[in-house]
Amino acid sequence: MLITERYADLTTGARLHYEEAGEGAPLIAVHGFMGTARKDLGTVIDWLSADYRVLGPTLRGYGRSTPRPRQFPFDFYRRDAADVLAFMDALEIEQAHLLGYSDGGEVALIAAGTQPDRFLSVAVWGAIGYFGPAVRAAVQTMYPARWVTEEDMDMHGIEDADRFVLAWVQAMKHMVDSGGDISLSLADRITAPLLMMIGESDKLCPEADGRRFIDRTPNGQLEMFACGHAIHEQLPERFRQTVGGFLRSVSIGH
After folding, report:
1. 204 and 135 Cβ atoms separated by less than 8 Å
2. For the chain, how many structural domains are there in total?
3. Cβ atoms 89, 11 nearer than 8 A
4. pLDDT of residue 124
5. Residue predicted with more confidence, 251 or 100
6. What is the pLDDT of residue 253?
7. E strands along the chain, which residues?
8. Are strands 119-125 and 53-57 parallel, antiparallel or unpaired?
9. What pLDDT score was predicted for residue 134?
10. In what order do the strands lie in the sheet with 220-225?
């Protein structure tokens, strides 16, 4: 399998490093917090590239994408969604399948609700479009940033881990305190088939909130997994069966 690494200069001012593999219908895979396309979704990209033209952008400020260091304004999810849409424009991709994990899932839901005609399907895990009080408590435990490694700091150009993580925590708490709507108000605009996957023990993604999101979508489904946040790593075989079946059903429908 040949993986090509490139950069895309976007109209939003970001320069995203991305990897590309495979041929077929375009599929964009968006990673999570403190990740890169390869670090978070390498196994997913490698698997799907057998059937799709898979593009894994690394979000601005992470890895080799710029501007660095990454900033966390209170609307950073919407900023990143705008980057994903601009990424498609830069590569002249009119429509694509869209996958998103964790923070990348939140970005994917916003992108799909902002420009619904651009997406053939949407699949997310570790993301539910809404941040309730439980999320506030969970993100608070991430500071101080003793969990950030030297490898993380070098990978993302972080000079002060506490300051970096605190900016993220403050943005997340602001979203919760502002009502928690990340993309819930856009749910009815997501016209593409939507697969939302939640781990039963994922403290960031209560099942009830996920069901509320799906109930507002015209073509959504929810799948629960007996694991935590990183479903693709914790239950890889069932993850592949579920996502693979979903993508095949979408292709047949088209």
Report:
1. yes
2. 1
3. yes
4. 99
5. 100
6. 65
7. 3-9, 15-21, 26-30, 53-57, 96-101, 119-125, 194-199, 220-225
8. unpaired
9. 85
10. 3-9, 15-21, 53-57, 26-30, 96-101, 119-125, 194-199, 220-225
Find all residues with CB under 8 Å of 220, minimum gap 6, and list them.
Answer: 187, 190, 193, 194, 195, 196, 213, 214
> What length does the chain have?
254
55 contacts 122 by C-beta, under 8 angstroms: no
The Cα 72–Cα 79 span in angstroms is: 10
Residue 139 lies in a domain: no
CATH number, domain at 237?
3.40.50.1820
CA distance 199 to 225: 5
Check whether 238 has a pLDDT greater than 90: yes
| Residue 101, domain member (yes or no) | yes
- For residue 145 the two structure tokens come to 């940033």
Distances (CA, A) of 198 to 42, 61, 144, 181: 20, 27, 27, 18
Asked if residue 82 is part of any domain, the answer here is yes
In a domain, 150, yes or no: no
Q: Tokens 């995203």 — which residue?
A: 16
Dihedral-angle region of residue 34 (phi above 0 means left; psi in -120 to 50 means alpha; beta otherwise): left
pTM metric for this prediction:
0.97
224 contacts 196 by C-beta, under 8 angstroms: no
Alpha-carbon distance of 15 to 138, in angstroms, equals 31
The band of 227, judged by pLDDT with boundaries at 50, 70 and 90, is very high
For residue range 159-206, list pLDDT tens digits in order. Answer: 999 999 999 999 999 999 999 999 999 999 999 999 999 999 998 999
pLDDT tens, residue by residue, 91-110: 999 999 999 999 999 999 99
Q: Which domain holds residue 100?
A: 3-129+182-253
